Amino acid sequence: MSKEALLVVTRYPEADMIVLAERYTLHVLAEAPDRAALLAELAPRVRVLATNGESGADAALIDALPRLEIIVSYGVGVDAIDLAHAAAKGIRVTNTPDVLTEDVADMGLALMLSVAREISRNDARVRAGEWGREHFALTSRMYGKRLGIIGLGRVGRAVARRAAAFEMRIGYHDRFRFDDVPYAYHDSAAALAADSDYLMVCAAADQIPRGAIGREVFDALGPNGFLINIARGSIIDEPVLIDYLADGRLRGAALDVFWNEPAIDRRLLALPNVVLQPHRASATIETRAAMAELLRANLEAYLAGQPLVTEFTAHLRRAN
C-alpha cells in the first residue's frame, strides 16, 4: 500500500522527520527548488499539511491544495494560519497545546530574572573584561514585586504558580474573569499595567489584535516597569516599544518573540535594557519530543477516522 503524501511547510528536527518518513511520503516545501512546481505536482493528492507556529499556512497555500482536509501544526500558536480561509473551506486544524506550557513558563521567569538583574548584560561585561574597571549599576529585585499577567490561560497560570514562589503580588487581565484563582482581576491591559512592576504577555495572538499592547499600556507601566513577552510578537506595538525603551519611558524588556522573525528590528540590538531570545521558549528536548508525538497522534487519528486529539476549533465556531 502506498504511503500518504504529507506536505511539510518547514523541516522539523531530523529525528521527527525520520519517524514521519516511516509512515508518510514527505515533501518539504521550504526545500523545493521550485515551490510552484511542487505545489502543482501535489495538488491532486495532498490531503494533509504539516506546518509550525511560525510558518503557518496562508490563503495562497491553502488555495494551492484543493484536496486539503487538515492542517496539523507543530506548536500551540495558530495565528500564522489563515484560520478564516481554512474555516470557509471546511479545513480542520490541530495544534500542540499543554505539552509546552511548563517550559514556556520557565522561560518567562528566566527572562524576567535576566532583565531585572541584568544577567545577560553583566555576563557580556564580565567577558569583555569590564569587571574591576567599570561601574556596575544596581538592579531590581523580583521578590515581593507586582506581576501583571496578560492572558491567564495555561501558560499564564503556570507563570503565576512560579511567581508565587517569589512572593510576588499577582494580577491579571483576560477576556474572562476567573473565580478559581486568588489573583486580582483588571478589566483592561492598561489598568493591569498601572498596578504592575513587571508585565508579562502570555495571551494567544488569535485573541488580541496586532499591536494591541502599545502606548497606553506602556504609559501605565511607566519608567520603572519591565515588559516580558513570551506569547507572540504581533501582540506588541514593537516600534513604539523600541521608542519607549530607548528614551527611558520603560525600564526594560525581555522578548522571546518579535514582529518579523528572524529578521528583527536592528534597533533592538543596540538597546542595553533589552534581553533577546530567538523564539526558544518551548525549545527543550523534552517538549519538542512531546510536540512531535502529539502532531503524529493527530495525523494518525485523522487518517484512521478517529477523533482528533487536540483540534483547534475556535475558527470553525467563528465561521458559523
Summary, kept brief:
The chain has 320 residues and is an alpha/beta fold. Helix content is 35%, strand content 16%. It folds into two domains: 4-99 and 285-319, 3-Layer(aba) Sandwich (Rossmann fold), CATH 3.40.50.720; 101-276, Rossmann fold.
Give the neighbour order of strands across the main sheet: 8-7-6-9-10-11-12
Low-confidence stretches: none
One letter per element, helices H and strands E, the order comes to EHEHEHEHEHHEHEEHEHEHEEHEH
Tell the overall outline: globular
Largest sheet: 7 strands, parallel
In CATH terms, the superfamily of the largest domain is NAD(P)-binding Rossmann-like Domain
Tell me, what is the CATH class of the largest domain? Answer: Alpha Beta
Indicate the CATH topology of the largest domain.
Answer: Rossmann fold
Number of helices: 12
GO molecular function: glyoxylate reductase (NADPH) activity; hydroxypyruvate reductase [NAD(P)H] activity; NAD binding
Organism: Burkholderia gladioli (Pseudomonas marginata)
Keywords: NAD, NADP, Oxidoreductase
Family: Belongs to the D-isomer specific 2-hydroxyacid dehydrogenase family.
